[in-house]
């Protein structure tokens, strides 16, 4: 199916980007900053790119209110790469040998937990697997260790559509947060976690760059087996350029940050995100055809999962929604059903169009 217009793209990632950002990138593609070349063709160590890089970091610091006590790394390898880097950098801080606690609330935190088992003791402090990852376990059931180096959690689970409403209370223990899918979507207190990490391909720009925000005193403790590219202290010492960085992805992230600043920053975009999520969830809650199965207080603002009560209509729903320019609504194979990812760049008009289509489809079903 082809379109002669922009669609409303509800993909979970790589996700929709602001049209304004795409137009600027297109305009600068052949001649960036009057250099007669694209940003992809200039040296990453040249003064022009280094100036861009520093501006990107500063804009992110402004947007997230990141204090100087935290380092910002722009790395490759995605969240899965950091699932290895984090235990290799932090597990040595444990009292009695490498160990970390994990709150497993979905597929992505489960992947983090299983990867960490390669480097030390990965202790399952809490899990909602028995509830099919439709909720977050009650705080009273968490079994946090006394000797773990840190506690790891995923702030927003894209597959199940579960999101922590706030940074969890772990009794003052070092906390590590995977914010791949809700970074810059809501205000957070950076000082509540020692490490924040996430890929750019949902709320920032195209895939290729992974942002790691790490408290500076947590660097320099890596295991001897840690590859240089995963050693945060070595990357920090080289401006994240131990190897050639993903220059185009960093450039695009910078455009995304400028766009977000122009919208009024994180506070303004959070208000918009709440409006979008409320619109869609309110419709689902009154529907006789669709249902959301996530505990209400843990519903994701970014990834709204839903199911058709008559699953024989799934194929028809997807075919007709695609034809209407509402694409990528099929749920992840691990969860089934449908999923509408409504990240920062998804306009309110897109969610309104989706709700109107769903309402019409329900009338005709």
UniProtKB/TrEMBL annotation:
It holds the Pfam family Aminotran_5. Pathway: Amino-acid biosynthesis; L-serine biosynthesis; L-serine from 3-phospho-D-glycerate: step 2/3; Cofactor biosynthesis; pyridoxine 5'-phosphate biosynthesis; pyridoxine 5'-phosphate from D-erythrose 4-phosphate: step 3/5. The keyword Heme does not apply. Its cofactor is pyridoxal 5'-phosphate. Binds 1 pyridoxal phosphate per subunit. It is found in: Cytoplasm. The modification N6-(pyridoxal phosphate)lysine is found at residue 202. One of its GO terms (molecular function) is pyridoxal phosphate binding. GO terms for biological process: L-serine biosynthetic process; pyridoxine biosynthetic process. Transmembrane segments: none annotated. It catalyses: 4-(phosphooxy)-L-threonine + 2-oxoglutarate = (R)-3-hydroxy-2-oxo-4-phosphooxybutanoate + L-glutamate; O-phospho-L-serine + 2-oxoglutarate = 3-phosphooxypyruvate + L-glutamate. Keywords: Amino-acid biosynthesis, Aminotransferase, Cytoplasm, Pyridoxal phosphate, Pyridoxine biosynthesis, Serine biosynthesis, Transferase. SUPFAM superfamilies: PLP-dependent transferases (SSF53383). The keyword Glycoprotein does not apply. GO terms for cellular component: cytoplasm. Pyridoxal 5'-phosphate binds at residues 108, 158, 178, 201, 243-244. Residues 7-354 form the Aminotransferase class V domain. Its EC number is 2.6.1.52. Homodimer. Catalyzes the reversible conversion of 3-phosphohydroxypyruvate to phosphoserine and of 3-hydroxy-2-oxo-4-phosphonooxybutanoate to phosphohydroxythreonine. This is Phosphoserine aminotransferase. The gene is serC.
């Amino acid at each position: 199916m082809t379109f002669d217009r922009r669609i409303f793209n509800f993909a979970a990632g790589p996700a929709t980007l602001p049209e304004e950002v795409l137009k600027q990138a297109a305009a600068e593609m052949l001649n960036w900053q009057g250099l007669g070349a694209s940003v992809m063709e200039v040296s990453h160590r040249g003064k022009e790119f280094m100036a861009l890089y520093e501006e990107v970091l500063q804009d992110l610091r402004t947007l997230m209110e990141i204090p100087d006590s935290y380092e910002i790394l722009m790395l490759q390898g995605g969240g899965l790469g950091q699932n290895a880097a984090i235990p290799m950098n932090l597990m040595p801080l444990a009292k009695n040998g490498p160990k970390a606690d994990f709150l497993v609330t979905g597929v992505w935190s489960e992947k983090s937990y299983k990867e960490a088992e390669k480097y030390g003791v990965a202790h399952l402090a809490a899990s909602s697997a028995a509830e099919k990852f439709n909720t977050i376990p009650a705080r009273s059931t968490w079994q946090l260790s006394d000797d773990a180096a840190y506690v790891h959690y995923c702030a927003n689970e894209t597959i199940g559509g579960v999101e922590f409403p706030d940074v969890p209370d772990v009794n003052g223990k070092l906390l590590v947060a995977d914010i791949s899918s809700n970074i810059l979507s809501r205000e957070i207190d950076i000082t509540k976690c020692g490490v924040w990490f996430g890929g750019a391909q949902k709320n920032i720009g195209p895939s290729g760059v992974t942002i790691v925000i790490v408290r500076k005193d947590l660097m320099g403790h890596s295991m001897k087996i840690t590859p240089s590219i995963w050693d945060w202290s070595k990357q920090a010492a080289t401006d994240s350029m131990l190897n050639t960085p993903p220059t185009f992805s960093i450039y695009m992230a910078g455009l995304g940050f400028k766009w977000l600043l122009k919208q009024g920053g994180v506070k303004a975009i959070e208000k918009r995100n709440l409006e979008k999520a409320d619109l869609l969830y309110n419709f689902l809650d009154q529907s006789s055809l669709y249902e959301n199965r996530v505990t209400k207080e843990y519903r994701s603002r970014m990834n709204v999962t839903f199911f058709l009560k008559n699953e024989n209509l799934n194929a028809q729903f997807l075919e007709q929604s695609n034809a209407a320019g509402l694409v990528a609504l099929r749920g992840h194979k691990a969860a089934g059903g449908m999923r509408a990812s409504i990240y920062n760049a998804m306009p309110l008009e897109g969610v309104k169009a989706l709700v109107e289509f769903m309402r019409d489809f329900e009338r005709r079903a």
